[in-house]
Amino acid sequence: MPADDAAKPRKGLIQALAVFGERRALVMLALGFASGLPNLLIFDTLSLWLREAGLSLQVISIFALATLSYSLKFLWAPLVDRTAVPGLTRALGHRRSWMLVLQGALMLGLWAISGVDPARDLALMAAFAALVAFVSATQDIVIDAWRIEAAETEKQGAMAAAYQWGYRIAMITAGAAPLILAETYGWSASYAAMALLMLVGAAGVLAAPREAAHVVRPIPTEGVPSRPALELPEWAGRLAIFALGALILGSGLAADATLIGETLRAVGLPGAGEALVAAWKLKPEGVYLQLLAVAAGLGVIVLAICPLPGAKTRPGVYLFAALGDPLRDFLVRYRGAAALILATICLYRLSDFVLNIMNPFYADLGFTKIEIAEARKVFGVVMTVLGVGLGGILVARLGLLRALVVGAFAGPLSNLAFAWLAVQGPELWALFVAIGIDNVASGVAGTCLIAYMSSLTSAGFTATQYALFSSLYALPGKLVASQSGRIVEGSAAVADAGGPLAALKPLFGALPPEAYAEAMARSSVSAPALGVGYLLFFLYSAVIGVAAVVLSFLVLRRSAALTPAGGVIGDAD
Prior knowledge:
Layout: H1 13-18, H2 23-52, H3 57-62, H4 68-71, H5 77-82, H6 88-92, H7 94-114, H8 122-150, H9 156-185, H10 187-197, H11 199-207, H12 228-253, H13 258-266, H14 270-280, H15 285-305, H16 314-333, H17 338-347, H18 350-353, H19 358-365, H20 369-398, H21 400-422, H22 428-455, H23 462-472, H24 475-481, H25 484-496, H26 519-523, H27 527-544, H28 546-559
């Protein structure tokens, strides 16, 4: 936040809403569509095509490994920051030239998928899917960088909201249109039509205002001699170690060790590979292995990019500058506050991340699949869209850090709605109320966090720093979320055993018989005890959100006092 942000007059509602009608926000809507379309086509819709082609679920699930590109995108983000597109960069600018090239590649990739029969050429289909995923993840890097650089901090909420609106429109389109087209014209024609829809993104790029001149941070190589004969094997060795670290890190972030298992199989250790894949899937022990893999993978990557002790070489200088300088820049600019900022980012959505057992909760409460689908996938989406827009308005009206505090309250308070739902039983109106409150709050919090992370980047490192924040901020949530089911069933067992928790069981005595009817069969506890377990879990999910509230207040309080190396907390250079 700028140091004088507190002194600025708050914007009126009309002024805040006017931001959404600006040219940049409308462009962001188209770019959000271009970002969401290939994502769902590869990671969701394609699975139905593969299933209809007669492939097993095990084979289909391997295609999910393409998500590694999204988890690891910060590793090649420096290339996006530093590399110009020949011919186009001078005409369109750095970010727009990258976006246009990538959208053309996505069109070609989706068109190539449309021409493949997965029953005959599964390997080719997998290769094209992986290519589309990689290009799509790279496009996200560039779109995020353009969004951050194209608008002032106070408008980042509206830009983030427009992006999410476009993304959700694309998800609805990619989830329904290909199926409708495939029913009549076949899957090939369906995916060819989806390739043409990427023209929406290209139109957005061409309609975008010209960006400011891009700054490429220099890499200091003075005094480092050029030795091509020695550098070639060093590059090969460093990149091999880098790839190993990326494999380990990506397997941890994606919670899937299939690629490591296949690698072990290829080197003659099939038993070790199978054992590792099985251990990765254990609940909750596998989560600790995944987090260990993240730490180990990062360690191997650091080893790959660090200069050789006592001897500077060009590969070491280039790699460390490309990946190390963006992190060092952040730590230097926010020294004295970097730990506080990173803690805020990592814990901000913690109360949302632990809600990974919601479908089982709705089923245990007695709702039908159709009721759950209507509430979550139809009404819930509408409420999320409203919440995203509300978040953008809050950032524009209140300023970035005040909005961040509001968003920090939204998550834990909305979880109390589920605690209330747990004692209502299978009342459809109550389900809609709880989901509506939660999705609006989630939309607000998500938009505020995106705007805040955007403000932390600096010129020349925008793509790399934001990609790093967005790739790693969910790690603490993954660890805590692994315990959600244990907390529910453990609390229920304690309630059945007597003691203080048993006093809560009468709250569930008057519920209809379908509420928690399968408690004994599924969790080996009584129906009222399972209700107690869910009630305590949602209260716990609200309590752990207090950490984000406290940290957000600390960031707000210290923002005016801390001016590290020419910046303040939340102030983009």
